[in-house]
Amino acid sequence: xxxxxxxxxxxxxxxxxxxxxxxxxxxxxxxxxxxxxxxxxxxxxxxxxxxxxxxxxxxxxxxxxxxxxxxxxxxxxxxxxxxxxxxxxxxxxxxxxxxxxxxxxxxxxxxxxxxxxxxxxxxxxxxxxxxxxxxxxxxxxxxxxxxxxxxxxxxxxxxxxxxxxxxxxxxxxxxxxxxxxxxxxxxxxxxxxxxxxxxxxxxxxxxxxxxxxxxxxxxxxxxxxxxxxxxxxxxxxxxxxxxxxxxxxxxxxxxxxxxxxxxxxxxxxxx
Length: 271
Known about the structure:
By secondary structure, this protein is an alpha/beta fold. The chain has ten helices and eight strands. Helix 6 links the parallel strand 5 (about 165-170) and strand 6 (about 195-200).
């Protein structure tokens, strides 16, 4: 058994994700980052919401919570405040995090809760029928947008930064080592960390948009993902469908649990 495999519930495998789905790659990147950091199964908690991505918590051999739709971040916040020594990782999807969970997302970032949020972005609601999500690219098709979306999509990384997150990064299922690096950096940040993991969905998204071959979807990631240093030099007119990956933003600010402890001290609660 390879060292990282101890972090999986072997009796729950193989997983139920569609052939070619990128979620398994992102899940493996998380456990490899956890291993690199030296975290244990006793001091790490995995929290997920509802959706394809959120099934990951059931396969991971930690204390895990599979919570209500969009509510992973408030559940995780409660865990972190109850025991600030725990390493709390949130696994969510583009719909779970930025639609029904949107307010929890921005307020978790605003408060700078010490959570590492890994957003599996497959550009669609995969589990519930292939509806367009707030991150479905413009003009792409979905069951709720048979002629193409007209809603401008969220950029979750920009949203997290604007809301107050202190670490923001993006990578893809193609750039496996890089994705693991980004998650590891997020785990090292004392505060709210968002890592967007761009993953392929050949079934719900790909079939609607003439990209049903998962290998071609990964080649699209390879050809369109641009490291941030190169992105910053790329003229706006040459960007097209390309997108930046890497550490997009870093800052330092008091995390929420530490700020809350100060309030308790002022109230005399630690005497």
